[in-house]
Amino acid sequence: MIVSVKEILEKAKAGGYAVGAFNTTNLETTRAIVEAAKETKSPVIIQVTEKTMEYAGGRMIFNIIKNDVEFYAPEIPVGIHLDHGASFEIVERAVEIGWDSVMYDGSRKEYADNVSMTKKVVDFCHKNGGNITVQGELGSVPYLSEHKLAVVDWDAYMTDPEQAKDFIEKTGIDTLAVAIGNAHGFFTEREVPDWARLEKIRSLIEIPIVLHGASDWEDGKATKAIELGVNCFNVDTNTRLAFVNTLSTIFKGDKDPGLDLRSILGEAREAVKESVKRKMELFGCVGKA
Ligand code: G3H
Ligand code: 13P
Ligand code: ZN
User: Fold this and answer.
1) Has 155 been annotated as catalytic?
2) Which residue's alpha carbon is at the smallest distance from atom 5 of ligand 2?
3) Residues pairing with 48 in the sheet
4) Domain boundaries of the chain, sorted by first residue
5) What pLDDT, in 10s, does the model give residues 232-252?
6) How confident is the model at residue 146 (pLDDT cuts 50, 70, 90)?
7) Which CATH class is domain 5-136+210-283?
8) Which of 48, 184, 186 to mutate to test the pocket of ligand 1 (most atoms within 8 A of CB)?
């Protein structure tokens, strides 16, 4: 059943576990995430970026997710979220289609601009008792593509805990994406995340904390992040890798893969499902649906 992202995350916070927010781009990935959630009885967030809205059609991908959940997993709480919304216009468009959770990513803006733009999005999403969850980001989570050769100056990306408190007070966001040494993609992340910073942020704010770039946050790291207050991990690269590696194995193998796309893509879908299930176990949300 489609439920509010805020509700999923507040339950996770109260229960001391985290949920996964998995990016989808197509039918196969969506079905894999929905089936993984159903088989493990996990609450889950399925998220879409602006690029995917352009690729698949915003209304189309939204309806694929909604129909998949309603038909295949009506008993599982699933939230549908816009990931990394970069403008007020994309938020408006997503809300018009039916999204009830959005991220406004002003993390690369000057602080005052991030505050004013995020507040504009919150005012729009919360207006007239509107119940649309808004995620903001403070500090910034770097991308692999930005740093192919460079040594990352992690301090330049980190979330300032006191500023996080101020940001929440000024904007009214429902959830906060933090930067504590995490990065998008398989990347040489900061060797040790800044645990003290995460602890400080958690002690100063009440709202759920989201950690982007969690594809390579495995056992010890994810568990410690949950203990220190992370309630949601964003995963994209790991899912895409499972999909692409499976296709690559099929096409490089000795067996003729044939022309039945359902069989070829079906194998990729299975691999994605298994990768998502492993993440759900790691995040501690199995059985929480
Ligand atoms: O954090 C962003 C995601 O990894 C997806 O990026 O859909 O804009 O390529 P994209
Ligand atoms: P990864 O690409 O590292 O999985 O990060 C995903 C993400 O943060 C989506 O918002
Ligand atoms: Zn992200």
Assistant:
1) no
2) 213
3) 82
4) 5-136+210-283
5) 999 999 999 999 999 999 999
6) confident
7) alpha beta
8) 184
